[in-house]
Amino acid sequence: MHRERRSSVPGAMVWTSTPEGRDAGPGTGLVLPDGCMDLLWRSDSREVLVAGPDTAAYASPAAPGVTWTGLRLAPGHAPALLGVPASELRDRRVALADLWGAARARRLADRIEVSPGAGLEGLVAPVPQDAALAHAARLLGSGHPVAGVADELGVGVRTLHRRSLAAFGYPPQVLARVLRFRRAVGLLRAGRPPSQVAAEAGYADQAHLSREVRTFAGTTPSALRPAQPSGAKRSTAPPSGSSTVA
Fold first, then answer.
1. How far apart are CA 162 and CA 134, in angstroms?
2. φ, ψ for residue 16 (rounded to 5)?
3. How confident is the model at residue 198 (pLDDT cuts 50, 70, 90)?
């Protein structure tokens, strides 16, 4: 079972997930690239993990009865908190103790265990997001060219490239693709047909959408759409869930 809510941390979401029945077992959940980084708390190990920015679908381990709580941070927010460039965490899951030391991580675990969601939020709250980087992510995600985004920020393209790797874990061109893919996933999960999603999300055509979905998710656009009983009509969009598909 998966639930999520908006966080008190700007641009972040708090989510909880407890696999049950057929949803449990290795690889039953695929975490899709979305440009975000997550802080993860696993109920049975009292350990905070950092999920770096992904470039491909990640098979999430799922054990019955084990609750995961996560704080999904907006693109570019986590590195200022962690003190580590996002590029060093790309496609990795790392124990916070490895970044901050075991003693500090244990002290944080004692606070987070009482209320995991609020505890993770309290960890992040004192560190504001870089407004310029947040603006860059919005521009890239809405299809602005890299050179135009660099001009908007008043920096050169090479500087934008360097700052993008440190903040987001990707070059700006890749961040733009990941954010466009995230938008497409949301539309597909809302039940939109792939041809319409391709046009709305800014792909050249449906074949372009299919190639990008294959690259980032390892599947087809149709596989990301919600299953419906034969003949059923969907009048409302399904909940967004998270970056995870089951």
1. 15
2. -130, 145
3. very high
Contact between residue 35 and residue 53 where contact means Cβ atoms under 8 Å apart: yes
The string of DSSP letters for 45-104 reads: TTEEEEE---SS-EEE---TTPPEEEEEEPTTSHHHHHTS-GGGGTT-EEEHHHHH-HHH
Sheet with 29-31, strands from edge to edge, namely 58-60, 29-31, 244-245
In whole numbers, what is the pLDDT of the chain averaged over residues? 87
| Alpha carbon 1 to chain centroid, angstroms | 18
* Identity of the residue numbered 202: G
131-235: CATH number: 1.10.10.60
The DSSP secondary structure of 95-107, one letter per residue, reads EHHHHH-HHHHHH
Q: Tell me which amino acid residue 195 is.
A: S
Residue 61 CA to its chain's centroid (Å): 17
Q: Which residues contact 20 (CB under 8 A, 6 or more apart)?
A: 1, 64
Check pLDDT > 70 for residue 237: no
Q: What is the mean pLDDT of residues 215-243?
A: 61
* SS3 assignment, position 243: coil
Q: Where in the chain is the domain with CATH 1.10.10.60?
A: 131-235
Q: Which residues partner with 49 through β-bridges?
A: 40, 95
Q: What is the pLDDT of residues 101-124, one digit of tens each?
A: 999 998 999 889 999 999 999 999
State pTM to two decimals: 0.86
**Alpha carbon distances (Å) from 194 to 61, 130, 202, 207:** 29, 35, 12, 10
Residue 235 confidence (pLDDT) above 70:
no
